[in-house]
Structure formats: C-alpha cells, structure tokens
Amino acid sequence: MGSVEAALDSLHVDDRSIRLDCSSEWLHMHHHQLSLCSVHVATEDEVSLGGFAKHAIVPDAPVPLTTRHFERITPFLASPETPAGLCVGFGTYDRSYNRLAAAVSEAARPDFVPHYGSRYELGPHSGRLVDVLTAQGGTRTTTSMDPRITRYAEPDVARWVGMHYDNAWTSQGEGERHPRGVRVARADRRVLHNLGPGIRSLIFALNMSALHVSDLVCPGDDRHIPTTQQLREFLTAHPAEVTKIVCVVWAVEVGDLVVLPAGLALHDGSMEGRRSPSSALVFAGKFPRGAFSRT
After folding, report:
1. What pLDDT does residue 171 have?
2. Fewer C-beta within 10 Å: the chain N or C terminus?
3. Are 16 and 85 in contact (CB under 8 A)?
C-alpha cells in the first residue's frame, strides 16, 4: 500500500491542483477534522471479496496531521485569484434558510432520478437536488453502483466504485461533463451536507484533478472530457504515479457541509472508523467561493 510520507516528497502545487478555500488560521482551528491518506489500485482480494470495481482507486488508512504535513499542504490554500472551480470550501447551512426536509422527501420518491432533482434556495444561493446519500459505519468508501444511473454504472459484479470523478449531465446542460478548456469555469460544484446522525469523511486528492488526467492521456486536447476509467487505466499502466497522490480526509460533522468541484477533484466518501450511519444531502450549482463559509 502507499505511503503518505513518500507521496508528500513529490507533492507540488500547479494551476491544475485542487485548493482549500480557507485560511491557514482557520485550518489550524479545525485541524481535528483533517487527516491525509495515500491511495492504491484495488487488489485482487478487494475486487473479488471486497466488492470493488476492477482497478478501482482505493484510499489507504488516514494518517493524523503532523506539523510537517501541515506545512506541505499550506501551498494548496486558495489565493484570492484561485477560481471557485478548483476550490473545496467548508461551511454550514443556516437551517432557517432552506428546505432540507422537502429535499429528503423528494429524493425518497420511487421515481426520483439522481441529478434531476428540483432547485432549492440555499440561503442566498440556489442548488439542484442531486441525491441523499446514506452510508453505514465502517465502510472504506461510500459510493456504490446506482442502477438508476445506467450510463455510469459499474458492472453488476462490482459494488464499490472507488475514488472517482463525477460526470453527470442533465438534459438542461447542467453538470460536470464539460471539455477541459472550459471545465473550471462552467462545471457545477456540489454541496454535501451531513444530516447525521453520525460523522462522515470526504476524501479528495490535491494533485490528481481531472485536468491532470486530460494532460496525461490527451495532452493539448481542450475538448477532452476525462473519466474515472481513464485514470484507472493510466494508474494501472504507470504504478509509480499512484504513489504520488496525496488526499485530504475531511471529517464532515453533523450540520456541516463541504463544497466540492466533484467533476474535477478525485474523491469519495468514507465511513471508516465510524460507528453511526450518516445521511448526506447533495446539491449541485454554481456556488461561489465562500458561499457557506463558517466564521
């Protein structure tokens, strides 16, 4: 399995990297929610016994943050010029401004199709309901094959998708399936709000965005739309690249949220080390930086 320490030695920020939309001081104050991990390509046992897709990208166990770790990820803090499309933001909902119960009820309908939900006012912002994600305690990752989304479903023999990019696309042209040349500016960002009752983690890679994938597999092609499968194939053919990936593991406490460029950031949820289940509401939209920031 990979090593965070080894991966940190090759970690560097560039204009394709995922950034943390917060200050160094804020991150210090919330260091208890932060850890790091490396990843590996699913082993034969993880595929045959653990239910992962073939060549799935699986996160390793999280490593508690040290002073050295903190210093190495500080360059990934967003600057004023960093576009929202590359930023992961952190915050809360003011429950008086939204209709969480209505969104949960809509997602529970038998005819609900993920990504095609109604639009909801989220305080001063607006988001399209994507889904309510439920997860039981103890699972390494949380994204499983969804038979309602046949276009992106894994083969029936696989349950767990592993770390991935979202490539949703509605009939109204909303979602993440934009070419590389306009992906940062036009793709939706997603809000994941933890309803509880338990804490859940969100894992995302700092240095293997979908922009990196396009440049690796189709350099110079601004029309390219990267997929998780392309990254799996690339990492399987270039195992040394797997050891360079560094992921942030963020504990999303009950009532908290994360704003994620899910089509750009390699990511997945995790319930590893958690006993209580968690449900999370997911919305998609053009959320600006600082949309739900905690003070």
Report:
1. 81
2. C
3. no
